[in-house]
Amino acid sequence: MAVLHLTAFDTGIGRATALSFVQAGCTKLALVDLDEAGLEVTKRLLTDTVWPTGVNPLVRTYKCDVSSPEGVVAAYAAAKESFSRIDYSVHCAGIIVFGGPSADLPVEDFDRQNSINYRGLWLCSREAIRIMRSQPLDCEAYPEAKILPSRAQRGAIVNISSALAVYAQPNCPAYCGAKAGVLALTRCDALDYVADRIRVNAVLPGVVDSPMTNPSPEVRAWLEANPVQHTPMKRFGQPEEIADVAVFLAGNKASLVTGASWTVDGGALAGWN
User: Fold this and answer.
1) Catalytic pick from 62, 88, 175, 193?
2) What is the full DSSP assignment across the chain?
3) CATH of the domain at 85
4) Is residue 270 situated within a structural domain?
5) pTM for this model (two decimals)
6) 174 FRET partner, CA 20 to 30 A, in 58, 63, 146, 167?
7) How many domains does one find in the chain?
8) 226 within a domain of the structure (yes/no)
9) Is NADP tagged as a keyword (predicted)?
10) Which pLDDT tens digits describe the chain residue by residue (273 residues)?
11) Is residue 216 part of a domain?
């Protein structure tokens, strides 16, 4: 009966993550996005599906701009009021602007990407931690789950970064820099809150088949001809492949994992030179 708080789930990795958590047994979801129509579509998908457990999840939706401190505080407070705790918080919000190299990049494009990809993610992490550190361990909250006290946690955070945090792509200085910042934030929060039994990890997707990688036929063709062909597996990743890793990292089976960066990129980093 775990509670998931998920930002940016209207399409792609976010929606797949919501579905994967329910498949893994999560029964309460707080979903946050700026797109109200996308919120409703995902909510219906979650509640109308016939799940093997026979139990449909309880879903609450909250419209929120993650770059707004007041909006993020309100969304997390509303989720806490609805569910009394947050077990997992997965932060998927992100945008990419191919604005050119640094000398040609407008300040507005730089600021917009950082306000969502880094600052917005930090705002979400901050509120999740504030809630998690004051709640009982999950072994106490869910005694029926028979979680070993040594593997129990007050909460787990999964930050969706990018493989571009590690290796560069032309014309993406703001995006790559923000995603690298997410890795540093993940490590810092993991160390700062390990004593509170809060684990913090990052997932670094490679090129994933999603709306972000299909903004136009020209961009799609470039991705297929360049990064995809340079990936050892030579294919786009699927959102579900990222989501399943996030589910694992959030759960007690990953109880010894914190401060880690899991690259899910079809071998691109291994073959990068």
Assistant:
1) 175
2) --EEEEES-SSHHHHHHHHHHHHTT--EEEEEES-HHHHHHHHHHHHHS--TTS-PPEEEEEE--TT-HHHHHHHHHHHHHHHS--SEEEE---------SGGG--HHHHHHHHIIIIIIHHHHHHHHHHHHTTS--HHHH-GGG---GGG--SEEEEEE--GGGTS--TT-HHHHHHHHHHHHHHHHHHHHTTTTTEEEEEEEE-SBSSGGG-SSHHHHHHHHHTTTTTSTT-SPBPHHHHHHHHHHHHSGGGTT--S-EEEESTTTTTT--
3) 3.40.50.720
4) no
5) 0.94
6) 63
7) 1
8) no
9) yes
10) 578 887 766 668 999 999 999 999 999 999 999 988 888 899 999 998 878 777 889 999 999 999 999 999 999 999 999 999 999 999 998 888 877 899 999 999 999 999 999 999 999 999 999 999 999 999 999 999 999 999 999 999 999 999 999 988 888 999 999 999 999 999 999 999 999 999 999 999 998 887 777 767 877 887 777 788 888 988 888 999 999 999 999 999 999 999 999 999 999 888 776
11) no
- To the query of whether residue 118 is one of the catalytic residues in this protein, the response is no
- CA–CA distance, 126 with 105 (Å, rounded to integer): 29
* Domain membership of residue 63 as a residue range: 3-210+239-264
